[in-house]
Amino acid sequence: MLAASISAAGTTAAQTREGADSAQKILPDTDNSKAAEALLLGYRLADYARATKDARAMMVAAKIVEAAPVKEGSDKGTLDREAKPGATPKPLTGADLFDEAAKLAAGDADLVAEIEAARTEVGKGVACPCNSLRVVQYVPGKTTWTVRASFRGGEPKVIGVRRDSATPLALKVFDENGSLICQDMSGNVTLYCRINPIWSGPYVIQAINYGEQGTGVALVTS
After folding, report:
1. CA-to-CA distance for 118 and 114, rounded, in angstroms?
2. CA nearest 141: which of 185, 204, 79?
């Protein structure tokens, strides 16, 4: 389900600051990266459950997404083409996935009851004040959505995008030197990158719609 590729050449080219250690470091998770990982895991599990019509897997995905602490971001970035008026995508929520699970379980009263019990139970949780962000944007066909962000050195950054249609999408992340440091070209519904910044600085995240049709896209960052 997950196919993110790290550009070795891009990583080497990115080490241009004086005194920077060019060795790749695996940084320990933070609360923020754990929150983003959880949300993206829930999205990927939902993609699997939808493809296999697995109501129980969809219920688990719903519980993960509903419990993942995430804030709705306001920075919409820029598009290299104008979006059509009225195109206002909404983020996929745990409540949406519980509804899907119930539809998939239709005809199985016991499973429907289990799903509704899970919905009630997860609703009692309290989200922690984490800084993982989700931003939704409508991306027209043949269009690149660009979001600029500042990452802190020594903290892992988890980045994912999810499309809400069948259009082909790609995820790319560049450092301040314009070097490609991570990309996911897998064609999956949910795309994923994880990077380990050596220093603090600006980065560029791009979700590229290669298809003819527009799509709603959710960007998740830790």
Report:
1. 6
2. 79
Show the beta-strand stretches assigned E in 175-214: 180-184, 190-195, 201-209
CA gap 58, 102 in Å, rounded? 9
Is 162 within 8 Å of 218 (Cβ atoms)? Answer: yes
**94/101 Cα distance (integer angstroms):** 10
Q: Determine if residue 84 is left, alpha or beta; phi over 0 gives left, psi from -120 to 50 gives alpha, anything else beta.
A: beta
> For 77-99, what is each residue's pLDDT tens digit?
999 987 776 678 899 999 999 99
pLDDT tens per residue across span 94-118: 999 999 999 999 989 999 999 999 9
- Contacts with 78 (C-beta within 8 Å, 6 or more apart), sequence order: 145, 146, 147
Angstrom distance (rounded) from CA 160 to CA 85: 26
Amino acid at 112: V
pLDDT band at 18; cut points 50, 70, 90: very low
